[in-house]
Amino acid sequence: MTPRIKTRVxxxxxxxIGGDNPVAIQSMTNTATADVDATVAQVAALAxxxxxxxxxxxxxxxxxxxxxxxxxxxxxxxxxxxxxxxKLAIAAIEAGADKIRINPxxxxxxxxxxxxxxxxxxxxxxxxxxxxxxxxxxALLDKYGHPCAEALADSAINAIGFMESLDFGNLVVSxxxxxxxxxxxxxxxLSARTDIPQHIGITEAGTVRCGTIxxxxxxxxxxxxxxGDTLRVSLAGDPVQEVxxxxxxxxxxxxxxxxxxxxCPTCGRTQIDVAELAEKVEAMVADLPDQxxxxxxxxxxxxxxxxxxxxxxxxxxxxxxxxxxxxxxVARGVPxxxxxxxxxxxxxxxxxxx
Length: 354
Hints:
This protein has helices at about 35-50, 60-75, 85-95, 110-125, 140-145, 150-165, 180-190, 210-225, 240-250, 275-285, 305, 340-350, and strands at about 10, 15, 25-30, 55, 80, 100, 125-130, 170-175, 200, 230, 260-265, 290-295, 310-315, 320-325, 330-335. The protein has two domains: about 10-250, Dihydropteroate synthase-like (TIM Barrel), CATH 3.20.20; about 260-350, Sulfite Reductase Hemoprotein, domain 1 (2-Layer Sandwich). About 40% of the residues lie in helices and about 20% in strands. It has an eight-stranded parallel β-barrel with strand order 3-4-5-6-7-8-9-10, surrounded by six helices. A five-stranded mixed beta sheet has the order 11-12-13-14-15. The protein has a two-stranded antiparallel sheet with strand order 1-2. By secondary structure, the protein is α/β, with parallel strands linked by helices. The protein contains twelve helices and 15 strands. Helix 3 (about 85-95) links the parallel strand 5 and strand 6 (about 100). The protein starts with 9 loop residues before the first strand and ends with a helix.
């Protein structure tokens, strides 16, 4: 895997991105921002799942008023998402936003952007320039004829240039499209032209099933090439699911710590419900911060050999199973209804011994 491309460091509240800092996971609430209690509850759930910071839409004056109350109760930094109305961006900054996100394609005139930059400068709040294929400037659409990687990169570079002409470099930038190859190409072009940290993701990726696949391909490709300082997996559904998927993408590339559960695909020899057991194991270890690989194998024939690279594992037979450590059997004949508890105990022993 390509080493991470070095970008400048930007602070979103207490979280630093860019430079040598870990890739930060973020998500976005889908509650009505004016509903303070519901939004605070969702922010807390996202933070517990592993979000470094959370984005909240500020789409009207009621949302701007609520944002201050939400920020006061948030366990993580909050990003205010702004479209169209520059006054809401300024209101969000005044309400305590740790970062604001604006889209140069719909925020309005340069004078309006200048006012937002002035407020952000005074408050020392970073701005994320968010470029989407669906809201490119008319001049770029006229030039290229349609949304494409080059148009997306040019839009971002133009916005960055204008911001920097105002002596504002406290920036994060994102280029997103629902088209995976276009997004990858655009982010590559952008990475070659600026050291500003990139927020990466596939916008409108789809349902949990299909969106997970598209995001893993797009985000995973960019991360493997060293591109990306923060990411969001955009799924239609509970945003907590976005965080789980993002964590797995990062762990699969060695960019985040935490438990990894592997499971055999099953075959005719399988005598236990591997899928159900693996899901129970995932739930059991979900809150562990430690790096540990756990194997769930469906038979005692190939289980020990296939689980050799895992720290610990279980292999099931008819009504019973075995506990494995680095592929070696450490307990046989464990009743099926005791397998999870025996595994939990062995994980605890391994972690305590480190």
